[in-house]
């Protein structure tokens, strides 16, 4: 899952990002509204966590612009205000959810995962294929009754392949949606991760390589 965190408080944004990466998410940061709009046009995010009080372009305008331009990401608005009027305003702009600062990190994670399940297309809470199952919320994957010991990136790649429901997912899409923008686009990290994942999944093989196209389950 790829998430954009938009907050002009760098220390807070980096703290949130570090915690979400521990949850297996790929995280990008934007420190103002203009950068957020630029990022959202380049990458296909699952969820955008958007602070309302932003410099350059206000969070309300960012939200409105994203909706008007058909952004598929789910938007979670953050604000220091807890008034009902502010929550109503934020949701009326097109935000999918609203969270008041300060917040419990566990609640932020739960809300992001809940929004991701409502993405296009919707992703079920447990992904399955034959004797293979994966629960993104619990960070667990099983095959044939055996729990798999997967790294966060292996879990993210497996989640994307299972969510594709048999469709081919290119290496470029895996790189874009499971890693962040600090990753070298010419790296072979996807190939290496797929290789490790195949070994851990065991036999019979479930990940198919489609030559010159990508991978599928």
TrEMBL record:
<dbReference type="InterPro" id="IPR016032">
    <property type="entry name" value="Sig_transdc_resp-reg_C-effctor"/>
</dbReference>
<keyword id="KW-0597">Phosphoprotein</keyword>
<dbReference type="Pfam" id="PF00486">
    <property type="entry name" value="Trans_reg_C"/>
</dbReference>
<dbReference type="InterPro" id="IPR001867">
    <property type="entry name" value="OmpR/PhoB-type_DNA-bd"/>
</dbReference>
<feature type="DNA-binding region" description="OmpR/PhoB-type">
    <location>
        <begin position="124"/>
        <end position="217"/>
    </location>
</feature>
<feature type="domain" description="Response regulatory">
    <location>
        <begin position="2"/>
        <end position="116"/>
    </location>
</feature>
<feature type="domain" description="OmpR/PhoB-type">
    <location>
        <begin position="124"/>
        <end position="217"/>
    </location>
</feature>
<keyword id="KW-0238">DNA-binding</keyword>
<dbReference type="InterPro" id="IPR001789">
    <property type="entry name" value="Sig_transdc_resp-reg_receiver"/>
</dbReference>
<dbReference type="Pfam" id="PF00072">
    <property type="entry name" value="Response_reg"/>
</dbReference>
<dbReference type="InterPro" id="IPR039420">
    <property type="entry name" value="WalR-like"/>
</dbReference>
<dbReference type="InterPro" id="IPR036388">
    <property type="entry name" value="WH-like_DNA-bd_sf"/>
</dbReference>
<protein>
    <submittedName>
        <fullName>Response regulator transcription factor</fullName>
    </submittedName>
</protein>
<feature type="modified residue" description="4-aspartylphosphate">
    <location>
        <position position="51"/>
    </location>
</feature>
<dbReference type="InterPro" id="IPR011006">
    <property type="entry name" value="CheY-like_superfamily"/>
</dbReference>
